[in-house]
Amino acid sequence: MYTIDNNAISEKELLELPKEESFHESSPFEPPPLDHFQVLIVGGMGAGLASRLQQRNIQALITKETNPEQAVKDFLNGTLKTEPFEPHEHAHEHSHH
Length: 97
Prior knowledge:
By secondary structure, the chain is α+β, with helices and mostly antiparallel strands. The protein contains two helices and five strands. Strand 1 and strand 2 (8-12) form a beta hairpin.
C-alpha cells in the first residue's frame, strides 16, 4: 500500500490478506478490504475482477513493471505502461499464489 501526498509517495506498508479476503475468493456483494483504495496496479488481472473494481470506483491497471515503487512513480508521472485485461474462463483448473 502506498500513500500519496502532493503527487509523491509519503508512506508505504505491506498488506497481506488471507485467501478468503482476496478479491478472487470474496463475494462481490460484500465490501472487500481494499475498498478505501483508489488505484490497484498489478501484474495480471482478469476482466471480471477489473469490472468489480470499477464498480467500487477503484482504477485497475496491469503493468509489466516488476518494481512496485517504480510502478507507482510511473503512474504518478503519467508514464506507466499498461497492458490489457486478461480474459478469464472458470472452466479450467488453476491456482493462485
